[in-house]
Amino acid sequence: MVRNSFFGLFSQVLFIIVGFFSQRVLFLQAGRELVGMNSVISNILAILSVSELGISTAVVFHLYQALSHKKESEIATLMQLYRRAYFMFAFVITILGLAILPFVHVFLKHNHFSLSYIRLVYGMWLFRTVLSYLLSYKRSLIIADQKEYMVCMVTTAAGVLNYVLMIVIVGMGFDYVLALGANIFVEAAGNIGLSYYVDRAYPFLKERKKESLPQTVVRRIFADVKNIFAVRLSAKLLTCTDSLIISGAIDVAAVGAYANYSLIIQSIINMVMALSNAVQPGMGALFTEHDRQKKDRALRLLTFVFYFVAVTAAMGLYTMMKPFICDLWLNEQSLPDHTVIVCCALNCFVYTIGQPLVIVMHVSGRFEKERVTAMAGAVVNLLMSLGLVRIYGIAGVLAGTGCAYLLQLMLRLWYFFEDDRRKRCGRYALDLAEYVLSAMVQLPIAVNITECVYHTGGFLRFLLAGGCCVCFSVGVNLVLFGRSERLAEVMRMIKGLINRKSV
């Protein structure tokens, strides 16, 4: 699990660094309208990809037990079901994508691109999406087998190469379409490499490919899929409609500006997701046991770790986002309003501290409850974003997303502890309240520290101010929770892992 976490976080750090260079080149060389068009098209296809129904989550959930008990026959039949489903989804997405092709320009308000160019870019994005379904399904077996670091190594190499190609091709003045074509080729090569590894590492997949799953297992999987589909659809509506709302209410250039702010938030979210994905298989193995107290303790410890990430990331966003965009990354014309910065920081904090509950809801198989939670969040986000975007612009859309995150956290809290809300839920809610109060106390002090350090500007001052912000956050929380049993247990776990490695 530690190796998975390390490679996951390492890959995200690389993606962040190279991704910001790529976005800078694309924004300054090709213009905010192309960045906006890129964002809108990718979000349209992300919504279409909901036809995947969530079968990957359901299959991986069943793979946990099959792998832990080394049931080769069940693993092979699950992967065969997975393969057939993904090939069908690729066909469905192709049909839906081609149906939208004649009308894709309608989603791009006030742009100067020709209709043929818009359709070409959209067609290439559609081909990229379909190809990923045909080639990437086998990686789920590697992840479920707690070897996510292997997937990370391949995807990191392919992702960094894609960013470098984008920087070089667009930076030299060539058309964006050429860079997109190169990206498709590199991504396909990485997926083919992972498929080859799975075939070599799990030879029984081919030996047992004619076997079939018991109907009871198939029925259980598709019962889960019905619930997960609603979760996936709601999640797509929550995360992928913001660009479409901004494009419709304002224009495609505003989407380009939003894409820049979104990249910053998404970079942090990707690191959080890398950590979540790394710990999820371990939590999945733990939740096959029947010790409720052990599960609750694991959730509290995981939330404590994620709180450290949440408060550090949120304070860093609030204090350093303005100098980063204005002085280092883009220019003063790209500077967001203060309200946008506040919304970004709050969204980051709520999303991150809510991830442990997302993990335990998934690994405990509470897909029906997740369906309700996801749908409620999507509805709140859509209604609030549509209502606030014309008044507050981009900040209104971000506020809608933040309210949806908060509602989902509260619903997951309610559902996970439904059998003993007074004792179990109350204790966990007190932990969350403690973390929120701690963050509120730290924020004004962190603002003053970073302003004093960065007052003259410059890259070195920026690094120093960011370092001071991180050190202050970690130091204060170590002092505040120094006598906490949560910190002591986390430290014991870390020491145990270190000792295990040294043996």
From TrEMBL:
GO terms for cellular component: plasma membrane. InterPro entries: Poly_Biosynth_Transport. It is a multi-pass membrane protein. It is found in: Cell membrane. It comes from the Bacteria. Keywords: Cell membrane, Membrane, Transmembrane, Transmembrane helix. The chain crosses the membrane at residues 7-28, 40-64, 85-108, 120-137, 149-170, 176-198, 237-258, 264-287, 299-318, 338-360, 372-392, 398-417, 429-447, 459-482. Its main location: membrane. This is Polysaccharide biosynthesis protein C-terminal domain-containing protein.
